[in-house]
Design brief:
The chain is built from 4 helices and 8 strands. By secondary structure, the chain is an alpha+beta fold. An 8-stranded antiparallel β-sheet has the order 1-2-8-7-6-5-4-3, with helices on both faces. A hairpin with a 2-residue loop joins β3 and β4. The N and C termini lie far apart (about 50 Å).
Length: about 210
């Protein structure tokens, strides 16, 4: 049943993307703004978001940066540690540790699956079991993907980020912790990725 839940969430995710496509115009992205749309299904315990922005770096450079999984603590909010526990043909398994407010810690394991072409890059992830973790120590579910494509402006990439996360039971009055895992952290993360890409080119971002 647990695996079935993961499969259903993974299959439903494209529905959220299709809905958001009507709300984010990928031809009108800005290097100074981040478009963020919530696509959470009514009654769902999971939070779903789609975000997009323009980053001044080629697709393949950004694709490489996002696949540097052990560097995630340097630009992923709340991420205190990442470890590549397995690298196979076409995918990697990474272990992630989050340090949340009030001393709360969450750990989870992701299967990362990149699809890289000459002019595009998609990096999808889904939660996989991590034996030994108690339910309160991990997430109920998280799935999503990055999609990178060349923009109409040479040397710049249109970046889309899609995520669906169920953080599990949150104590009354602490719902903002769930927001810190998604809604609040997404703009921070994309902004940090923008600065990281600029630094690789010897540039700076205000």
């Amino acid at each position: 049943m647990h695996l079935l839940k993961f499969a259903v969430a993974w299959l439903l995710l494209p529905c959220a993307v299709a809905h958001a496509a009507n709300d984010i115009d990928m031809d009108k992205l800005s290097e100074t703004k981040i478009a963020l749309v919530e696509v959470t299904k009514a009654g769902s315990p999971a939070k779903s978001f789609v975000a997009a922005t323009l980053i001044g770096a080629p697709v393949q450079q950004l694709c490489t940066l996002i696949q540097q999984y052990e560097a995630y603590p340097s630009f992923m909010p709340n991420t205190t540690a990442t470890k590549v526990s397995y690298k196979g043909a076409g995918f990697s398994i990474i272990d992630v540790t989050l340090g949340l407010p009030l001393g709360k810690v969450k750990k989870y394991r992701l299967r990362m699956e990149p699809e890289v072409a000459a002019d595009s890059c998609k990096i999808a992830w889904k939660l996989v079991p991590w034996a030994g973790l108690k339910p309160e120590e991990t997430l109920v579910d998280t799935t999503g993907y990055w999609h990178l494509a060349p923009s109409k402006v040479p040397g710049k990439s249109a970046v889309k980020y899609v995520v669906n996360t169920d953080a599990g039971p949150i104590p009354f009055g602490l719902g903002w912790i769930a927001d810190s895992l998604s809604k609040d952290s997404i703009p921070q993360m994309l902004g940090a990725l923008r600065k990281r890409a600029a630094a690789k080119q010897g540039l700076s971002v205000p």
